[in-house]
Amino acid sequence: MTTPDSPEPVADASATSGKPERRIGVYICHCGGNISDYVDVEAVREALKDEPGVVVSESPVFACSDGTQHDMIDDIRGRNLDGLVVASCSPKLHQVTFRNVAKRADLNQYAYTQVNVREQDSWAHPHDRSGATEKAIGLVRAGVAKTRLSDPLEPLVVQTVPRALVVGGGITGLRAAIGLADVGIQAVVVERAATLGGWVGTFGATFPDDASGAEEVAGLVEEIRKRRDITTYTGAELTGKSGSFGNYTVELTLHRDGSDKVLSLEVGSIIVATGFDAYSPDDGEFGYGIDGVVTLPEFKAMVDAAPSGGLTWRGRQVRSIAYVYCVGSRQEAGGNEYCSKYCCTATIHASLQVGTVDPSIRQYHLYRDIRAYGRNELLYNASREAGSTYVKFADDQPPSVAALPTGGLAVTVTDLLTESRELTIGVDLVVLVTGMVPRDPSRLVEVLKLPVGSDGFFNEIHPKLRPVETVVDGVMIAGCCQSPRTVGESVSAGLAAVAQSAALLKKGFAELEPLVARVNPEKCTGSGECLSSCPYDAITSIEWEGRSIASVDPATCKGCGGCVPVCGRDAIDLLGYTDAQMRAAIEEMVATERPKEPVA
User: Fold this and answer.
1) Residue whose C-alpha is closest to residue 539's, from 560, 520, 517
2) CB 168 within 8 A of CB 162
3) In sequence order, what DSSP letters do the residues of 74-89 get, joined into one string?
4) For the chain, is the Cβ count within 10 Å smaller at the N or the C terminus?
5) Cis geometry, peptide bond prior to residue 208 (ω within 30 degrees of 0)
């Protein structure tokens, strides 16, 4: 790693320092037709084989296959390669794969460049083969130019604290805390409410097995009491974070008897499991505000508390119920466009509970689509067999709800299953099947710098490859703070975060990407403009040879590059993506004539 005392790197080391010509291997992947159906891969290979510094140019059918990986290793060792370029799919899929190829062949992993030809070229230009081929040649040449100027980098090694902070004391957070303690990592649970358990702790029977949510939470709380490695704080919030990955200092504010007490702790990782809020309909939305129109959480509490033999609403016997699905979910643009995923099954399960309380209650399910996937479909079938009536309405023709002068409610809907006939159903109770909405993320965004998606939920790095990790090293997300999901899915995500934390903390150290910003102290004038540009507070001002300059903490820097363009003296560079590398790549993309030189 370069330190603030290091001199500025030479733009083209091979051209000015007498270093030998780079020896780069280039592999253009067919991707099983995803690339080769739209790009002339052989033409790309031919165009690259005589590029300066390229000594191997191949076009495997699948670059990621085990056989091709071994061929790459043989080429690196046998041809003494010092650079690797793979033109294939997105780096999100196989960057780690090819870095591991480089490491197995004793090649510095940061001398590898992946060129995204699939998403950025072949899939973007399926009807222009010649144009896509020309673009692919330019992209790969740019990757080679960048690799020619690459420097050997090594991961940053940081010591870690074997303690994790779990933010949120719902079922996901509680299960995560137990998992952490069971693998030998201390866990600290901080819950904003006065009691643990979250939503699930308020539920009676839950789907799919009728297990009591309250009893499940009580069992987890009892397990936590048995473990000395778990500390819980209720009526508390995470209000501050400092330090760097593996050695965070967090500030907890405990609300006690009308006053606040601040507690500081050192933790190695943070698991955010803050859950969700239920959608609150606007007045008049599907009749909300009319006596007898309730939301799903309100109805669930009513059913859980109902005695055997009858269901009542404000002293009146309930003889009929209409459920209106997708309230607050799958809305038009500008609303909550996502599906809340759990509401269909939760409503169907609640209707089966109603059947056990009073089988004579008539139940009507007004839906756009039923999404009771997996074994939850068995509940859907059981509901129909028990007598529930399902009425399907069109997306653009939602039902309307009105109060009847004689009492009760009238629900009017156009049923697509009966030749689009308009039906008016008289009922005693209307249940608005409300979905999940994200909790206000502003405090955690401010403290943890967590990214938030357009739907308002926290964002992971990749939904399949890195499903609980965030761009902030050592900070994981799990459960419904991430997206709508069921209890089982939330707990699974919490345990995934436990596994990720254990992988980071059990060794006592962690390796971080060295692709971070670096300040050239000779150029830096200490203007301070870069300090305010860093969203992660990784840049500070230090004294160097009698003057103030900027300094980057490599363990805190995320390599976003946001500080680079704000420096008017070009004193900041991004390792792995230096100005020299990117200029060389751009010049290769726009060059019209490229003199070819023989490669030794």
Assistant:
1) 517
2) no
3) HHHHHTT--EEEEEES
4) C
5) yes
Radius of gyration for the chain, computed over Cα atoms and rounded to the nearest angstrom? 30
Token pair in block for residue 592: 């019209």
Query: What's the mean per-residue pLDDT of the chain?
Result: 92
Rounded CA separation 138/587 (Å): 10
**328-372 pLDDT, tens digit each:** 999 988 889 999 999 999 999 999 999 999 999 999 999 999 999
Q: Which residues does residue 276 pair with via DSSP β-bridges, in sequence order?
A: 438
Q: Is residue 217 pLDDT above 90, yes or no?
A: yes
Strand 211-212 and strand 205-206: the pairing is: antiparallel
Tokens of 492: 């699974």
CB 277 within 8 A of CB 437: yes
Amino acid at residue number 245: F
Give the pTM. 0.81
What's the CA gap between 593 and 466, in Å, rounded?
Answer: 42
**Which is it for strands 236-244 and 247-256: parallel, antiparallel or unpaired?**
antiparallel
User: Could you count the other beta carbons within 10 Å of the beta carbon of residue 38?
Assistant: 23
**DSSP states of 127-183:** T-HHHHHHHHHHHHHHHHHHHHT-----PEEEE--SEEEEE--BHHHHHHHHHHHHT
User: Which H helix or E strand runs over 48?
Assistant: helix 41-48
Going by pLDDT thresholds of 50, 70 and 90, the confidence category of residue 18 is: low
In the predicted model, is pLDDT for residue 10 greater than 70? no
Closest CA to 270 of 297, 301, 247: 247
Residue 17 has pLDDT above 60, yes or no: no
Per-residue pLDDT band at 510 (split at 50, 70, 90): confident
pLDDT higher than 50, residue 94: yes
Pick from 213, 125, 183, 46: which is nearest to 596 by CA? 46
Which residues have C-beta within 8 Å of that of residue 591, sequence separation ≥ 6?
none
**What is the per-residue pLDDT for 165?**
98
Where are the extended beta strands (E) located within 447-571? 475-477, 509-512, 517-519, 539-544, 547-552
- What's phi and psi for 571, nearest 5 deg? -90, -5
In this predicted structure, the answer to whether residue 166 has a pLDDT above a threshold of 70 is: yes
Q: Which DSSP symbol is given to 376? A: G
- Do the Cβ atoms of 165 and 467 come closer than 8 Å? no
Domains of the chain: 9-153 (3.40.50), 163-275+439-510 (3.50.50.60), 279-436 (3.50.50.60)
Chain length of the chain:
600
Mean pLDDT computed over 521-548? 92
How far does CA 570 lie from the centroid of its chain?
Answer: 33
